[in-house]
Amino acid sequence: MRVVVLSSSVSFSLQLSFLLILLVSVIRSNSSPSNDPFLGISPQDEKYYKSSSEIKCKDGSKKFTKAQLNDDFCDCSDGTDEPGTSACPSGKFYCRNAGHSPTVLFSSRVNDGICDCCDGSDEYDGQVTCPNTCWEAGKAARENLKKKIETYNQGLVIRRQEIEKAKVGLEKDAAELKKLKSEEKILKGLVEQLKDRKEQIEKVEEKERLQKEKEEKEKKEAESAAHEGKGDTEEKTDDSEKVEESTNDEGVPGVSQHDENPHDTTHHDEIGNYKDYPSDEEPAAEAEAEPTSILEEATHTNPADEHVVDTKEETPSSEDSVTEGLQNDDDTKKEESDEVKKMDDLVTEKKEELSKEELGRLVASRWTGEKSDNPTEADDSPKVDIQENHEHTPITPHEVEEDDGFVSDSDDTSDDGKYSDHEPEDDSYEEEYRHDSSSSYKSDADDDVDLSETTSNPTWLEKIQKTVKNILLSVNLFQTTPVDKSEADRVRKEYDESNSKLNKIQSRISSLEKKLKQDFGPEKEFYSFHGRCFESKQGKYTYKVCSYKEATQEEGYSKTRLGDWDKFENSYQFMSYTNGDKCWNGPDRSLKVKLRCGLKNELTDVDEPSRCEYAAILSTPARCLEDKLKELQQKLEKLMNQDKPQNHDEL
Amino acid sequence: MRSLLFVISLICFCSQTALSWKKEEFRSCDQTPFCKRARSRTPGACSLIVGDVSITDGDLVAKLLPKTPNQDDGDQIKPLVLSLSVYRDGIVRFRVDEDHSLNPPKKRFRVPDVVVSEFEEKKIWLQKVATETISGDTSPSSVVYVSDGYEAVVRHDPFEVYVREKSGDRRRVVSLNSHGLFDFEQLGKKTEGDNWEEKFRTHTDSRPFGPQSISFDVSFYDSSFVYGIPEHATSFALKPTKGPGVEESEPYRLFNLDVFEYDHESPFGLYGSIPFMVSHGKSGKTCGFFWLNAAEMQIDVLANGWDAESGISLPSGQSRIDTLWMSEAGIVDTFFFVGPEPKDVVKQYASVTGTSAMPQLFATGYHQCRWNYKDEEDVAQVDSKFDEHDIPYDVLWLDIEHTDGKRYFTWDSVLFPHPEEMQKKLAAKGRKMVTIVDPHIKRDDSYFLHKEATHMGHYVKDSSGKDFDGWCWPGSSSYIDMLSPEIREWWGGRFSYKNYAGSTPSLYIWNDMNEPSVFNGPEVTMPRDALHVGGVEHREVHNAYGYYFHMATSDGLVMRGEGKDRPFVLSRAIFPGTQRYGAIWTGDNTAEWEHLRVSIPMILTLGLTGITFSGADIGGFFGNPEPELLVRWYQVGAYYPFFRGHAHHDTKRREPWLFGERNTELMRDAIHTRYMLLPYFYTLFREANLTGVPVVRPLWMEFPQDEATFSNDEAFMVGDGLLVQGVYTKGTTHASVYLPGKESWFDLRNGKTYVGGKTHKMDAPEESIPAFQKAGTIIPRKDRFRRSSSQMDNNPYTLVVALNSSQEAAGELYIDDGKSFEFRRGAYIHRRFVFSNGVLTSTNLAPPQARLSSQCLIDRIILLGHSSGPKSAFVEPLNQKAEIEMGPLRMGGLVASSGTKVLTIRKPGVRVDQDWTVKIL
User: Fold this and answer.
1) Are A89 and B12 an interchain contact pair (Cβ–Cβ within 8 Å)?
2) For residues A580 and A591, what is the distance between their CA atoms, to the nearest angstrom?
3) How many helices (H) and strands (E) does chain A have?
4) Are A595 and A623 within 8 A, CB to CB?
5) Is the Cβ pair A378, B653 closer than 8 Å?
6) pTM score, two decimals?
7) Helices and strands (H and E) in chain B: how many
8) Chain centroid to CA A328: how far?
């Protein structure tokens, strides 16, 4: 059967078209309702209608006779009695569509003058003549289906590889995590020891310093005592006591030496705070709250404005011009630059005229809110927030790394910037991937490079351990004696280095832990999506969808967040991003990415079907599912089988 | 950082303004000097008397003179000219203007092209004036004939005009100036020292002719309520605005304005103005008063007892509603309509301003609109979704974004590269497209329309004589001067297929923003001292601007179709006469239950004042309706004369299939209900076209004696046969429905019978809102659905015969080609169906020369309320029997499809265009 279809090319075509004409005419002559009482009934259903002379409405509401079947009068409100006419509003018409797949139409399409079935069987009252297009349509459909199956076949192979890779990758991640954790434990101990030692040294140093000072003071005192009283000395002593106390009680490392540290700590806290509000709600709310009061003021002054305007003549009230100035500031941005110039000129020269134009815009904006569309305007607020509070976004990767170090201990922050998942081992694989998919790339490629160096070297920890041991031993020797300056520096340096290494490890641990918590799909087929972005250019916008992270719309240097990664939906048919930048007069932006089987990871068809609700399609081998392939194959088989009678007829 | 704060505060400023309408941006009566002056006058302040009465050209003509001779100061009151004319069917026209022979500074504006030319044919040439001294008066009054039952009285001193019944107590019907509040400010010539400027906010009105307002009181007798004077989002029966017990002290304002997010309960003026008021009282009698004036108007409905201390004695024993009418400019050109039946009044008004245009059939179907269907792909997608869900619709709409930068008559070449192809694809399914064309023209030297309009001087001028420059969608814009007939004709020519590139015969037009909306103008409109052709100030013509624009567009479409295609133009601004040019909608409403509720009184009011083809945006323009509200809105909206879903571009998509299968089903069923009733609606549109009686009517129009209906604006009649009760509350599944009259009512959903004259509590499940067919009526239906109305042309009819207590019923069916003007030449079918003595008869209502045939059959006749259980019927002239059996009331409907069985005459086989009888055996 398959052979027949495939060979029906040039040699067959003439014969075929002749036969098709025959076929069409057969259908035509058969299709008047009187000739075919069973018009519009599917083969599976024929039995139901043929079994007895009295037929029941399927909803049980009534019975009808065979004469009433397809008599163009609706007896059953569910349409049972009129499968082949338009008489029942809820009726369904079955077109056989030989050569293509059968379809079921609403009865409203029967004899409505439009050819709906490719075999033309829905139009039999002579209003229109419908050519039979089933063969061509069927052929095209089958070709499409075959192509699709081919895609699935190939995609499935890639998908299996992905799953294998995911397995390896996950194991590696787990192993790394395990290793890192044990290293962290050891390193933590070392750092503690170094810290103790450092503090001891510093205490000694401090003592020495005090001692020295005291001596110097005594010396000075001795000198000055000859000339003056001794009040000064008392003061000095007080001061130094205070310093001592604080160092002892709090045990803050290196207070005396690293003056920036306390400052750093508070900075650290601040970032932590922001991190607690990954969706920026808090800062945004703050930002809004303030101007609201400004606005209230403005509104309150309004009646007063009127008053002023009423009494004075040409000059608008000062408040008015201020608000108008404000408005103007905002508005001009959306216009072309020469407009801006013009407006600016107007600001200084003709306030009256400006206010009119400006008033027009203001009133227009109530309906349009259009300003918000343009990233340089009203909608800036979220963007401004980003720049203020999201200094760790991938826009500035260097800052990302720095921040990472500081926030490493806040585990459950869901914010970006911490996806330091780059694995050198995967590089080759990633490279390979980058080749076949132009639209995807790694987002945080340069994260944790130094860490990976260290982690890749199995002996680094031993080295450190050794070094520390040496230091501790050597420093110990000098414990009671005056501090050797170089030794002390060595301790401090070693402490700083180890501590920073520890921070990095901890950061890596937390990002790994977070990564492992992600939903990579039932077979981990989305593992490779982690840390990757897919890009699509549409008009002036570049859309960037970063899995497990965020989605953005970029135009030049301005960036609008379409949403943060939320989850997969509808059994992995969609990726959902929510809580994007707020829309003027609308919802927070959001994005739904439909996933479908494809050989490459490719982002297409980004659209905004409803205001600020975006949609896109991502082709990916991860969605080339076996079940779906089977389904398609069955469908094709069925279609091919269907051709059988027709081909049979030919021969 | 500072600039950052700036930006943020601006955003908040903008979003704050977006929350609700800015009351302070619009003038209150106190901020409107003429209104404030008129309102502060006391009864009896008018000192004018009537003199020099004569009959000239069939009119009563006289002078209005100061009672006491003028002092010798400069403020001389010049005599005014008064005229009273009488027209057939009980219409009195009363006019007052300045005396042109005394050389006023300029002619006051008389609104042209509103009164239909045929009206003059109705004039009764007065032959004589009778004199009569009203009891208590010192001087005589002039009395003229109006009709067999009525006469008009011009009382000389004190000056008063009224219509009274001739017989019996000579009861008054309507009177003008019975409280002596009449005032007529005469145009001034500016001399040094005069400062007539008025300021509002940042705007200054130069007012070169000084105060020129007119005010007077009008009283309606035997009146329980007054109605009309749209457009306001208020109750149908107008609440008093002044007097004892009235807190809200603003008059009803008639000033066409683009009001952002209007309130649902406010006397504030909206997009349109019709200064026509109707009163109705316990006696069942109705009368009306109409003031043809296009300037800003303010109207007070005065609460009982407002004049307690005035000392003026009016006829007692006649319940009366007093009103105060105030206008900024123009002349007194008023019409008294005597009624006495509600339908008489609307017919009388229609004979002055015209009946509503006969719409094309497609326009009575469902319209799908949104700001904006983005591009051709979006259009194709939405169109195909309707098919996918088997939801019929007739028109897809494109809002402003389809244009190239808000330049009307152009297309965005990226989004809509193939407009003709797109329209043809829709047309293949019998569907149309509507694009928006607004009156503001982008001031862009490279825009052909602007170039032409500038070159030809077609723009409205500012007070200094330059082309007026205001701000609207495209930014800096000028406005076509629609007052000039020449310019209107030029404008109409823009719609030819040649001039409007990308238009096809299936494209129709939407006129928005025609109040006109001027974003940076005073009260978001044009300055009052802007100038139209002939030196007419905008203040004088303001309320009619949008009307002329609508007219020009509509006439343009007629021209485009070479007079063969009925135009369809939707307008937002309205004025008396708008009904002749197309449909209107109630503007930018909001997705709230209260806005759904107020849509009914708004539509009832519009219908009562001539504009029957109206509707509110389904779902509410602003905001996102919850699915329940949207479903309820579709269920009510299916009975709006104009049935369109529309939404603001900030809202979520809300096409009927987007809220889950169940809600899709509910909305589809609502839309199906409308399509099923299209033959009935179309017949009613024809009735409105012939008589002016609206499609959707207040209950009291059908039941004038039933007092319980007078203030009911939650239920409404569709024609004389259907009563519909909306559901306006969230989560409600019950409704209390008052069913008026003595006859029974049949539930459209299940055929259940309810007695009239009672309030019934009944189920209102999510599937439907309560709707009833009145016993004694016959309603034609088409029970098969198609993609669009035009595809239903050949489908058979169903007649639903609801028998009354005497086993009788009657109804009509009107059919024409649904699109051309051939019906005017008799190409239509108009049948009358009467059921009496067990026989249903179809007779011809069309004149004998009428010629249109139809192959359509009546394939089902449903009998409701039949007293016996007949088994068959005999059909003549076919001379054959038809079976009668029990069948469903409605095929496939969500409610009626199951359970209920009604008597059904199966396949009588009669043609819709022929005489026949069906006798029940």
Assistant:
1) no
2) 8
3) 17, 13
4) yes
5) no
6) 0.81
7) 13, 52
8) 35
Contacts of B131 (CB under 8 A, 6+ apart): B140, B141, B142, B143
The mean pLDDT value of chain B amounts to 93
Strand ranges (E), B246-311: 252-254, 276-280, 286-291, 297-302
Dihedral of CA atoms A408, A411, A415, A417 in degrees, nearest 10, equals: 30
Q: What pLDDT, on a 0 to 100 scale, did the predictor assign at position A299?
A: 41
pLDDT digits (tens, 9 = 90+) for B482-499: 999 999 999 999 999 999
Query: Nearest by CB to B470, which of A88, A291, A360?
Result: A360
Rounded Cα distance, A101 and B344, in Å: 62
Q: Which two tokens stand for residue B828?
A: 């239509």
Handedness of CA B181, B186, B190, B196 (dihedral sign): positive
Cβ-proximal residues to B464 (8 Å cutoff; 6+ apart), any chain: none
**A308 CA: distance to closest CA in chain B (Å):** 9
Report the pLDDT value the prediction gives residue B136, as an integer from 0 to 100: 85
Residue whose C-alpha is closest to residue A40's, from A48, A53, A31: A31
The rounded distance, in Å, linking the Cα atoms of A572 and A628 is 13
* CA proximity to B472, closest of A361, A325, A108: A361
pLDDT in tens, B795-811: 999 999 999 999 999 99
Which of B190-199, B202-211, B284-293, B390-399 bottoms out in mean pLDDT, i.e. has the lowest?
Answer: B190-199
Assess A90–B contact: CB distance below 8 Å, yes or no. Answer: yes
**Residues B222, B10 contacting (CB under 8 angstroms):** no
Q: Judged by CB atoms within 8 Å, which residues 716-735 of B form the interface with A?
A: none
Give CA torsion, residues B861, B866, B871, B876, to 10 deg: -50
Looking at CA atoms only, how far is residue A384 from chain B in angstroms?
7
Decide: helix, strand or coil at residue A38. Answer: coil
ipTM: 0.89
Q: What is the per-residue pLDDT for A474? A: 66
Give B-chain residues touching A357 at CB under 8 angstroms.
471, 476, 520
In angstroms, the Cα distances linking B381 to A574, A603, B386, B507 are 21, 21, 9, 19
How long, in residues, is chain A?
A: 651
Mind listing the pLDDT tens digit for each residue in B38-96? 999 999 999 999 999 999 999 999 999 998 776 555 556 789 999 999 999 999 999 99
- Whether residue B577 contacts residue B352, with contact meaning beta carbons closer than 8 Å, is answered with no
CA within 13 Å, CB half, B517: 26
Chain B CB within 8 Å of residue A302 CB = yes
Interface probe for A, chosen from B1, B3, B8, B525 (most Cβ of A below 10 Å), is: B8
Ranges of chain A with pLDDT below 50: 1-34, 230-337, 339-351, 372-450, 452-454, 645-651
Locus of tokens 């069409």: A24
- Closest by alpha carbon to A244, among A255, A235, A233, A234? A255
- What pLDDT digit, counting tens, does each position of B539-558 carry? 999 999 999 999 999 999 99
- Of A314-328, B23-37, B864-878, the range with the lowest mean pLDDT is A314-328
Active site residues of B: 512, 515, 588
Q: Which of B429, B473, B887 sits opposite A114 (nearest CB)?
A: B429
Residue A44 Cα distances to A40, A47, A50, A68, B540, angstroms: 12, 7, 11, 20, 74
Q: Which residue has the tokens 């029957």?
A: B612
Q: Which position has the token pair 């005592």?
A: A225
What amino acid occupies position B920? Answer: I
Quick check: A560 and A589 in contact, CB under 8 A? yes
Report the candidate in B188, B267, B183, B198 with the shortest Cα–Cα distance to residue B231. Answer: B267
Q: CA-CA distance, B723 to B636, in Å (whole number)?
A: 12
**Can you give the pLDDT at residue A435?**
39
